[in-house]
């Protein structure tokens, strides 16, 4: 008797089908560790706290018109957990080369779609390289899963060890069954509008009242479709599929907060402005004409309630297109424009629109999704994620996590991914760049720090001038 097959959600299936040789749909992370791990203790941690999630024991069965989750009858942890060592100096450069190589290599679809590599000779401790396919869950959900492997002290309390949890497959509603039949019919193309409205109305996280929001949703859908393609720059090139990964030394979160407060904005505004100024420095270094209309980045927007149980995996986020005003050279004016762009997006339904579009694409033919993906990916130069992490340092199997970093996959013709993660009073920043794109990831990392220092200096100087004017 073959194992039971559980239908994959339409949105997860959409991410599954985005996988390509140029852009494998993997979320990739690296944790550097203060001291070496005990492999027996780490294996026990995985068995108790990671493999309790069904998805990590299940493989994908793709029949072409449907995709399913199925328990892997031959599941073996040794197929997913590997112990390796770095060559040469075993320094940061060698670790970045390894992560770049693994970030360019697809996962084995014959097995559950995740891999971990423990590097036992990095620094005085080690490093953990993690790769998980995007169809399993989104970044917010996977960060929560990975954090569940950690403890607040080197020796966990007995109550910390997670109990075995089994996620229950949610039964489809009558309306969802109708939607599946509608997509299967020959009239699916004429039903796209109805599918979209129904998908938006069913989303439990954002119950839209059609009477008051239909015009706003329609307007944002129209804006998304009519948005011009990205200007031609060196950031948009045909992709090779080989990635280059780098990460910066962390910023002090207190300094970022002080900068944001002085500017009257949020931490997110300050970090997006820093990214903008870093890309501006990249264009200058390459003597490239800076687009007068700025460039756009696709930013994931969480649609998952923060109190939702950790057992709930899957993808629950939309994408918003954020314009980065790289043409504005003055740091303070650049910040104001970034702040205005973000405030405008917060009032829009763009995240819900893109989530619902993914739901529709996941139900329809692959060729339609590919065409839509090409269309949407031409409207952004990069993917940028910003995920809040824990405020206190964490320990993995007794070893302190000194620096966590992760990268989300790019899709379609997008070849750059940038990630921001807060952790224990610091802000981590990393980038992955396709080798065909003429951008040095290590140089961009240095531009990021230089740009933050310039923005912070301008912010604090501006606040001092305001205080002096008020005093006089």
From TrEMBL:
Sample GO molecular function, one term: diacylglycerol O-acyltransferase activity
The protein's name in its UniProt record: diacylglycerol O-acyltransferase
GO cellular component, one term: plasma membrane
Assigned protein family: Belongs to the long-chain O-acyltransferase family.
Keyword terms: Acyltransferase, Glycerol metabolism, Lipid biosynthesis, Lipid metabolism, Transferase
Biological or metabolic pathway of the protein: Lipid metabolism; Glycerolipid metabolism; triacylglycerol biosynthesis
InterPro entries: Acyl_transf_WS/DGAT, CAT-like_dom_sf, O-acyltransferase_WSD1-like, O-acyltransferase_WSD1_C, O-acyltransferase_WSD1_N
Organism: Marinobacter salsuginis
EC number: 2.3.1.20
Reaction equations catalysed: an acyl-CoA + a 1,2-diacyl-sn-glycerol = a triacyl-sn-glycerol + CoA
Record-annotated O-acyltransferase WSD1-like N-terminal domain positions: 8-270
Sequence ranges assigned to domain O-acyltransferase WSD1 C-terminal in this UniProt record: 314-455
A biological process from GO: triglyceride biosynthetic process
């Amino acid at each position: 008797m073959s194992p039971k097959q559980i239908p994959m959600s339409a949105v997860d299936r959409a991410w599954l089908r985005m996988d390509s040789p140029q852009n494998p749909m993997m979320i990739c992370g690296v944790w550097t560790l203060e001291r070496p791990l005990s492999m027996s203790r780490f294996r026990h941690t995985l068995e108790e706290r990671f493999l309790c999630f069904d998805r990590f024991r299940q493989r994908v069965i793709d029949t072409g018109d449907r995709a399913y989750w199925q328990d892997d009858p031959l599941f073996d942890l040794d197929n997913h957990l590997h112990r390796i060592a770095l060559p040469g100096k075993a320094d940061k450069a060698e670790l970045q080369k390894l992560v770049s190589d693994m970030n360019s290599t697809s996962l084995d679809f014959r097995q559950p779609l995740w891999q971990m590599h423990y590097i036992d000779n990095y620094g005085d401790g080690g490093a953990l390289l993690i790769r998980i396919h995007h169809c399993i869950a989104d970044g917010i959900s996977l960060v929560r899963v990975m954090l569940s492997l950690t403890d607040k002290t080197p020796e966990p309390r007995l109550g910390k060890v997670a109990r075995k949890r089994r996620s229950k497959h949610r039964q489809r509603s009558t309306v969802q069954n109708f939607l599946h039949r509608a997509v299967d019919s020959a009239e699916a193309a004429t039903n796209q509008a109805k599918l979209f409205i129904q998908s938006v109305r069913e989303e439990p996280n954002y119950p839209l009242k059609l009477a008051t929001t239909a015009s706003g949703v329609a307007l944002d859908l129209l804006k998304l479709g009519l948005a011009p393609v990205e200007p031609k720059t060196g950031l948009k090139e045909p992709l090779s599929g080989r990635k280059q990964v780098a990460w910066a030394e962390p910023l002090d979160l207190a300094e970022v907060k002080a900068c944001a407060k002085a500017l009257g904005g949020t931490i997110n505004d300050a970090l997006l402005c820093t990214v903008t100024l870093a890309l501006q420095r990249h264009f200058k270094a390459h003597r490239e004409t800076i687009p007068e209309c700025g460039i756009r980045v696709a930013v994931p927007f969480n649609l998952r309630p923060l109190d939702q149980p950790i057992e709930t995996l899957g993808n629950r986020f939309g994408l918003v297109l954020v314009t980065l005003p790289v043409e504005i050279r003055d740091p303070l004016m650049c910040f104001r424009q970034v702040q205005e762009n973000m405030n405008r997006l917060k009032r829009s339904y763009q995240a819900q629109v893109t989530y619902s579009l993914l739901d529709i694409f996941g139900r329809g033919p692959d060729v339609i999704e590919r065409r839509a993906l090409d269309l949407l990916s031409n409207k952004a130069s990069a993917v940028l994620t910003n995920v809040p992490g824990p405020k206190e340092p964490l320990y993995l199997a007794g070893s302190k996590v000194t620096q966590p970093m992760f990268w989300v996959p790019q899709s379609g013709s997008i070849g750059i991914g940038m990630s921001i993660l807060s952790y224990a009073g610091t802000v981590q920043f990393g980038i992955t760049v396709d080798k065909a794109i003429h951008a040095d990831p290590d140089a961009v990392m240095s531009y990021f720090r230089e740009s933050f220092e310039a923005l912070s200096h301008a912010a604090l100087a501006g606040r001092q001038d305001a205080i002096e004017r008020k005093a006089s």
